[in-house]
Design a protein that fits this description.
alpha+beta; 8-stranded mixed β-sheet; globular; single chain
Length: about 120
């Protein structure tokens, strides 16, 4: 088990239109969006939780991807492997942080991330 601050901060979805997905949630719930290029939009749901919409099919998850913020990415990776999980996407940098994807023994894929500078 890892010690520190761990919390769900995002759910990322595949989409056929990042812009239209963001506009939908803005219209329904009044949530604001930040576009990171033409194929990815982040929608701020409030309370430190956001929805990510990935339009690039080569990078999009197969289904909803829960993302957990952690203090120590390497310690989390080690804990995932020790507990029987598998790494599905090795750690990579993105605007604002670094993350990796993993599959828990029941078959669900999730991601762990840490903000830049941690």
């Amino acid at each position: 088990m890892i010690e520190g601050m761990e919390s769900f901060t995002m759910v990322e979805f595949p989409t056929t239109s990042a812009r239209e997905s963001a506009e939908f949630f803005g219209s329904v719930f009044g949530w604001g969006a930040t576009q990171y290029g033409p194929e990815y939009t982040d929608v701020d749901c409030g309370g430190g939780v956001s929805l990510g919409f990935q339009q690039d099919h080569s990078e999009a998850p197969a289904g909803p991807l829960a993302v957990i913020q952690v203090d120590d990415l390497e310690a989390t990776r080690s804990a995932v492997l020790k507990a029987g999980g598998t790494i599905t996407v090795e750690a990579f940098d993105f605007p604002g942080g670094r993350r990796f994807h993993f599959r828990e023994p029941g078959g669900n894929e999730l991601a762990a991330w840490t903000p830049t500078g941690q």
